[in-house]
Amino acid sequence: MSNIEQTLSIIKPDAVERNLGDEIKSEFLKNNFKILKEKKIKLEKQEAEKFYQVHQTKPFYNDLCSYLSSGPIIVMVLEKEDAIAGNRKLMGATDPKKAEDGTLRKKHGLSIDKNSVHGSDSLENAKIEIDFFFKD
Ligand code: IDP
Ligand code: MG
User: DSSP secondary-structure letter at 70?
Assistant: First the structure.
């Protein structure tokens, strides 16, 4: 049975700053994701705090929110069969040093915080994150 899902992807400030947006988008397309929606924006720190509120008890929360709001990001709604798991696999492990060869974070990530891309981790969070950026 088919299981078409939508997931939220973010090209983070470190990658946008290095002009990797088109290259990363082409990697999504090559992997059969459809880019249904896309926009380039810059978050206020308060908005980043809201987006990452699940991490508010973590020691790196403040730095994480400062970082995500430090420059422009590209947010996208991606769609394909099993998109959520598929995007997590394409991204690779959170820490680029531990990410598998061929993954976006292995290819482009600079460090555990500047790891170039975000992807929703569950169906529930995908819906919340898509609404966060695209509900109007
Ligand atoms: P994920 O992005 O692979 O889903 P999460 O655990 O949800 O990873 O963490 C969210 C983001 O917080 C990561 O992408 C990374 O940028 C940052 N982060 C996670 N763990 C650490 C850490 O130990 N130190 C600094 N930043 C971290
Ligand atoms: Mg996560």
Answer: S
Residue 125 tokens, joined: 């969070």
Which residue's alpha carbon is at the smallest distance from atom 5 of ligand 1? 94
Q: How far is the CA of 26 from the centre of ligand 2 (A)?
A: 23
CA–CA distance, 115 with 123 (Å, rounded to integer): 22
Mean pLDDT of 1-6: 94
Residues near 89 by beta carbon (within 8 Å), at least 6 away in sequence: 103
Count of domains forming the chain = 1
* Ligand 1 pocket member 64 (CB < 6 A): yes
State if pTM tops 0.85: yes
- pLDDT-derived band at 1 (thresholds 50, 70, 90) equals confident
Q: Which domain holds residue 77?
A: 4-134
The CATH number for 81's domain is 3.30.70.141
Contact 80, 30 (CB under 8 A): no
State yes or no: is 118 an active-site residue.
yes
The Cβ of residue 128 has, within 10 Å, a number of other Cβ atoms equal to 14
